[in-house]
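hey m, so remember when u said the tokens were messed up on ur end? i reran from scratch. heres the input so u can diff it against urs
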Amino acid sequence: MSSHANTLSPVNLKVLKALNDSSGDFCFQSFATLMKETGLDRKVVRRACRFLARRGYAEFARGLWTDEGEVAGSGYAATKEGLKYVRTQGS
């Protein structure tokens, strides 16, 4: 695969960076949190997260809980590959 094929669009990179900012311990974030962090609307964030998941840069989970034991719903987190991408190409 060429390096061009591995290049993310500015929007996808922005969402991946937002996932990376708090994913050092693989935290999952909701669309609402990502919308706030990126300034993008829900449809764009959802599309970017799904794209990143298909590329292996993010993963989805449901049935999440807060540290306080409250239901947190579902969300996305950067994978090891996503974290690596931001460190090597996304800076």
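this time it looks ok to me. The chain has one domain: 8-88. if urs says something different then somethings off w ur setup not the seq
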